[in-house]
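re: that complex we talked abt at group meeting.

here r the seqs, copy pasted straight from the sheet so there may be weird spacing, ignore it
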Amino acid sequence: MQSTPQPALTSLIKGQMFEGLLLVRSAEQRTASNGSKYLDITLGDKSGEFNGKMWDGTVAAPKTGEVVKVRALLQEYTGRPPLRVDKLRTVPRDEVDLTLFVPCAPRSGEEMLSEIKERAEQIRDEELKNVVKYRLEESGDAILYYPAASKLHHAERSGLLHHTSTMLKMAEYVCELYPALDKDLLAAGVILHDLDKLREIKADDMGVASEYTVEGMLLGHLVQGAVDLGRVCDKLGVRDELRIMLSHMLISHHDLPEYGSPKPPMFPEAEALHIIDLLDARMYEMDLALKAAAPGGFTEKIWSLDQRRLYRREKPEKTEE
Amino acid sequence: MQSTPQPALTSLIKGQMFEGLLLVRSAEQRTASNGSKYLDITLGDKSGEFNGKMWDGTVAAPKTGEVVKVRALLQEYTGRPPLRVDKLRTVPRDEVDLTLFVPCAPRSGEEMLSEIKERAEQIRDEELKNVVKYRLEESGDAILYYPAASKLHHAERSGLLHHTSTMLKMAEYVCELYPALDKDLLAAGVILHDLDKLREIKADDMGVASEYTVEGMLLGHLVQGAVDLGRVCDKLGVRDELRIMLSHMLISHHDLPEYGSPKPPMFPEAEALHIIDLLDARMYEMDLALKAAAPGGFTEKIWSLDQRRLYRREKPEKTEE
Amino acid sequence: MQSTPQPALTSLIKGQMFEGLLLVRSAEQRTASNGSKYLDITLGDKSGEFNGKMWDGTVAAPKTGEVVKVRALLQEYTGRPPLRVDKLRTVPRDEVDLTLFVPCAPRSGEEMLSEIKERAEQIRDEELKNVVKYRLEESGDAILYYPAASKLHHAERSGLLHHTSTMLKMAEYVCELYPALDKDLLAAGVILHDLDKLREIKADDMGVASEYTVEGMLLGHLVQGAVDLGRVCDKLGVRDELRIMLSHMLISHHDLPEYGSPKPPMFPEAEALHIIDLLDARMYEMDLALKAAAPGGFTEKIWSLDQRRLYRREKPEKTEE
Amino acid sequence: MQSTPQPALTSLIKGQMFEGLLLVRSAEQRTASNGSKYLDITLGDKSGEFNGKMWDGTVAAPKTGEVVKVRALLQEYTGRPPLRVDKLRTVPRDEVDLTLFVPCAPRSGEEMLSEIKERAEQIRDEELKNVVKYRLEESGDAILYYPAASKLHHAERSGLLHHTSTMLKMAEYVCELYPALDKDLLAAGVILHDLDKLREIKADDMGVASEYTVEGMLLGHLVQGAVDLGRVCDKLGVRDELRIMLSHMLISHHDLPEYGSPKPPMFPEAEALHIIDLLDARMYEMDLALKAAAPGGFTEKIWSLDQRRLYRREKPEKTEE
Amino acid sequence: MQSTPQPALTSLIKGQMFEGLLLVRSAEQRTASNGSKYLDITLGDKSGEFNGKMWDGTVAAPKTGEVVKVRALLQEYTGRPPLRVDKLRTVPRDEVDLTLFVPCAPRSGEEMLSEIKERAEQIRDEELKNVVKYRLEESGDAILYYPAASKLHHAERSGLLHHTSTMLKMAEYVCELYPALDKDLLAAGVILHDLDKLREIKADDMGVASEYTVEGMLLGHLVQGAVDLGRVCDKLGVRDELRIMLSHMLISHHDLPEYGSPKPPMFPEAEALHIIDLLDARMYEMDLALKAAAPGGFTEKIWSLDQRRLYRREKPEKTEE
Amino acid sequence: MQSTPQPALTSLIKGQMFEGLLLVRSAEQRTASNGSKYLDITLGDKSGEFNGKMWDGTVAAPKTGEVVKVRALLQEYTGRPPLRVDKLRTVPRDEVDLTLFVPCAPRSGEEMLSEIKERAEQIRDEELKNVVKYRLEESGDAILYYPAASKLHHAERSGLLHHTSTMLKMAEYVCELYPALDKDLLAAGVILHDLDKLREIKADDMGVASEYTVEGMLLGHLVQGAVDLGRVCDKLGVRDELRIMLSHMLISHHDLPEYGSPKPPMFPEAEALHIIDLLDARMYEMDLALKAAAPGGFTEKIWSLDQRRLYRREKPEKTEE
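got the structure back, here u go
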């Protein structure tokens, strides 16, 4: 992982030289009117992107989505592309701190996924365990980097696992306080509840969601989740009541019909799933929104919170000890 | 089929003798305090039911749901069960006009089902045809007598087929007027849209729905319909877009989230399905409700019509020709 | 009728000569600073409009709304009006295909109106027939070209008749399937239900609605429709029940109070009228909206459909035969 | 007018003799099994009613709705009709204080109506004045005793005039404070706004509303009010803008679509009319409801106030001076 | 504490002798027509209550709300009060297991209150700590037995403390998972949020709420809570921002205006308070409601859960280990 | 007061000289690159504002918010600040007609406040009188110029007093018509109901509201009003019922929860307060909105009136006499 901080691309001033890592947004070898070959390339980081040229016909155009180490000048005169790229080499993605380019979950996808699978392993009811493991298995690798949304909460690389693993911890706490709850059923519900966001939204391996899939628009992850769960339960011979209850948890976790749930939660584990989901989404969104407000001031109206404006307190959010 | 009309059970006056067909609601051989054996039996028709005794220890108790030919007296004195049954023999159900006992669709289930299957056979897209036929096949015989609801519209024997076949005809008309519609897709949607009412409500073979199933309460026929459809599409290898569109038609046919649809209709065939369904339900319910109103007067408030009261016109509903 | 297709005005490239029919948006004879007389004219087709000059002091300015046959050049240099008109002569409107200039109903207003009047003639109840015929008569000629709306469904030349005549056919089908309905009453409701759109919106004889009238804003076509109907019923001595039922059909045809109906439909013909109206509006709007979407993609959010986005299927909407 | 108070009928104890005025609910001459003729009569006051017999074959049965002076005994033994009527004679209604029998407006209908007509006479705009006077004239005598509702506010004899005349005074005050308002237009709106309650509800000449008319149910007094106003405006040749504005005031005076207004108030006089109407209705209903609450306690939930419960203060509503 | 179980009062059969503890609902010394003195007494437990007589003029009538040790016979003949009390002596309430008479929180009020005060003591911000302690102090002893509601969740003796202390634990968990939250602020919000239920509802020292207070009806515990908090903040000189934020948490903890919150939660601690409150209420209500359902069946519609019916799973709620 | 009208600043044409009063928006002494000192100043009136320079190093910069008498030229060439100020002297604000700069109430704040205090003095109940007077006293001088809102109704200098004093007059009228109302209680409610707008919005002494305070956003003037009232009632020893009723009037005066009232009005004076408030707000907003519409035309959609468009009648709003 890279340790020295690099300047934000859009904070450069004209005439300044930049050295650091950038993400390739697009790149193509072209030929100028004088016959010279050059690389037409757009590079970016989390702060924005610039178009540029590299006058070196020997460099192969890197692929969109690759990370490159770059030495480039932000040029002074208008009428030219802003960047003059002098050096450029591809860097393997796993040597790179991706938070330079996109918002990322605070822990790695691998770590979170393994934790989740471990929890699945501890489920005592064999049928329930099998379903959860099967669904996790068939989700493949995309889950490692998928966001939980295109906007709203957990729109970040590995956001789906971030959301799931936080909820899983909260679920343990909730079951401790309310021991009548079946903790395995609730954990299973948490793990499965958003799994079909993998089918609902399109996202690249940076965890950036671009749009909804046709399936996502016409069916949504609640119903498609129930369909996939039904298929797996059939395959594994899961008993009826368990299949129905799990499916119900999936379709009811948005609570109200106007938020997409055709049925409201009708037993305590379904209700708890909904509330834990709500809590995690709200804490994430509020935290994020408040970053854009001045201390002692208010955010703009937030659409996903019914147009609420949030207050950011004057003193540090945490009392010092 | 029986042709001579028999009096309604509850229209009898005390002392009157009844001869005709009745439905066995319950029946048991018992022994009186004086050692005599008798049949304790409850018999009914569409108008209501009476308890009675038959003093004949040799007659085996018929089963609940059987139809019996009966000769019985409505007794004059209180303190006794109202009926004194003198003769009783079981009648095969297919020799009986079931409209004596329950509301029935105007045509036989067999006739309607065969018509529906014929329409399915004409679907030109092979994948679509296969799905529809498979789903009809696996629904089994219960569809022949199932009602479409426990209360509300088409709560009658074979009501599910009645509702479906009427909508099928309307769908043909609609496609004639709006030729941009895919008439096979719409027909398929009509046939499939309520099929999982078979799993949603419990009904006996008289077509009387007693209550919702657990599956019906926790998932409902829209979501369970999509699950079953997904399973069959997987099995038959139906292409993605077709599977998604058909599933969407199922889950969107109630239109609004508050009526149970997690998605509103998002293409014309889905919208048409919803409107045809609405039309058939409303025409049925209004027709039924108006029977209880006096000409020139109003019905009570009708719950399923948002508490509307309906007006029954003074003159015959139809102008004479 | 003109048969050879002409290029869309806004698809011309600079320097290109245009020959064809254009609609006069405005025109005026002026005198240049050098004393030359010229025609300052704005001309358009369905694709848009351009301003231009015609340097010929002898040509009388045509009237706004006239159709002219034009020979004109799209000029290359900025700083001048885009069009240099060389030739121009007025063309009688009935020799012109108006679809060049505005969306038009698929059939002529005259044809549709005569069909509707024919249906009115078949009404068996004399009082009902008289009312319908009287209301049609007093509506005059504007009905031949009036649209049914300024935006939304049937915002096209003769859209009001298009909407009415399609609904009339659907009404026949509906009455066939639900014979308890009084088919004459329903047909009368269809013919009358939107008639006061003639008083609600202002439209020119191209069928383009510009805005609402004061009457349209403060009363609306439902209430004004009931007022006009009341007046005619008084005049013709229509019996009370018929007047009340017809008036009710008019004011209830939007169904819900939030869509402007002070009463919901309270008998089957009123309900059927509402549903047929809904079906025709939805089919029209969806068809239109989908034209702007790519196959396999979605439309933008559609305001009149509660912000739904519609899906346009990948393959042709119709399965080939 | 009668001056000495008579006991409430239902406050009598068995064996007590009653003398006073009662309203005939029903009466019929019958013949007993022993051949004696008697009058079978039901008599009541505001507190309730009793059935009774009068053993005098010579007395003609009074008509339902007549007021009679009665001498009668409340009998002690069960198994007999409660009242034994000894004397009975009809009393002309105008000699009677009707508040003994029904809730009545605090002033006579004649007085209120003449006041209202006087106000109409002062309208300066001739067309407006004519419309108001014509509509008042054609309403006939029923307006003198009509209630404003069957339940809710001003369900009392002459309640319609009571409501109207109170609003008329408030309208004067409002126009004084907000002089931009056209006080004649507002007064006209007040006088006309509920006039078609005469066609909406059925009431006897005691001012007791029994039910809605067919017209009331299917059209309502807002729309029927606009229809009647339209007819009169046509007849009197009222200019368009005035007709439209007045009609708008009628249909918008319930403000929200869910309360029956197809349009919200769209100019200040229409808004003022709605608010004055609201104020008068609320003050009346609250006053009435609080009578049933104990000081320091709450009423039951009140349906017409969205299930609010009202508080009745402990000390007299008015501070003593 | 009493250890041997006593039979439920309403499970006795006629002729059976009862020995055990009962709660005095009412008691009075009376004199029979023959001059004998007797105690007219109504006694009850959680299952119900019976009226009875004790023929012993020497026993002083115990007070309503006292617990008595009783020996009594459930008498066989009708026409007498059901209970014949033979022996009776008052038992000090702290020697009694109150769960015999009313639903009780699982822990004693004293234990929970001391835990809550301990938490308050750990608040690091002095001003915040002082406010919380002051408000707890001035609440007095009633908090020890007060329920949290008259119906709904935590309608049990010491329910207010039960609700508060459970939420307090959940708040710790939540702050652990979401460390950006100010855990002292959230804990303070939890302790204060329902404190004015003490002023909102009337409850006896059995923790049974009878009705709302005038203050509770007209202001409610949210607004009155803010008023009381404002008063204490003034007195203790709490800084503005803290006062405003704490007050906001009180008035926003019902989230939506239709549930009584004039403002929605506008910072994360306020949102967390609302969600923790919701979770605790829902878990309590669902748990309670499910006790009345059969395994594999559904509860009735539950008003406080928007008419949802809950499912009770067939197998024990907890998987055995 | 200034009597001759001065031209609106933004109506000047280039090269024109302006003499009159302007409001200082900002002003600063600066030094040009050639060493000359000049005043950089922005000046405005109700129509808008211009930046300018005054080349006179000896003039001290006036303060923002001061009114100055100015002689200035609107310069012809671009590239310079629009205004060249030649003379400038500060004018005491009380010599100035503030309506030049901001919308103002039609009467002076002092006059209205003294009228309100006079009314308070006439309250017969001593406790009530004391509370009202105390609250008015502690509100200080800001009330003299405060607006009642930042947008919407009475967004004008002294708008709060304008709104209050108009309502006070209406309250007298209402109590005259509905004598069961306690006129002192209603007057007190009127005076107090919006008093905490002083804490809810930030406004300068021109009566221009810039934004909400933190207190205004998180608590609002309804709740903060109840808090302040509670404090004063405590201090003055007001009896419980009176305190509760007054507080209730404050928190219920927006009527519906969605408009911020945690409780609906629950006694007649609270209801009357709400309706009077509604009437005054609506009359003000409609009057203002209609100024922007052409006679015979409609306003734009008005957000605060649920997107209504208002009609401005063709003829003068008032019939001439």
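couple things i noticed - Chain D is about 35% helix and 15% strand. The CA atoms of residues 126 and 238 of chain D lie 9 Å apart.
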